[in-house]
Amino acid sequence: MSDLPRKAVTRTAKLAALPIGFAGRATWGLGKRIGGRSAELVGRELQQRTAEQLFKTLGELKGGAMKLGQALSVFESALPEEVAGPYRAALTKLQEAAPPMPTATVHAVLAERLGAEWRDLFTEFDDSPAAAASIGQVHRAVWHDGRRVAVKVQYPGAGAALLSDLSQLSRFARLLGPLVPGMDIKPLITEMRDRVSEELDYALEAKSQQAHAEEFAGDEDVVVPAVVHQSDQVLVTEWMDGTPLSEVIASGTQEQRDRAGQLLARFLFSGPARTGLLHADPHPGNFRLLPPDPEGTGHWRLGVLDFGTVDRLPGGLPETIGRSLRLSLEGHADAVYRLLREEGFVRETIELEPQEVLDYLLPIIEPTRVEEFTFTRGWLRSQATRVADMRSPAYQLGKQLNLPPAYLLIHRVTLSTIGVLCQLGATVRLHDELEDWLPGFADGE
Question: Rounded to whole angstroms, how far apart are CA atoms 8 and 382?
Answer without folding.
Answer: 40
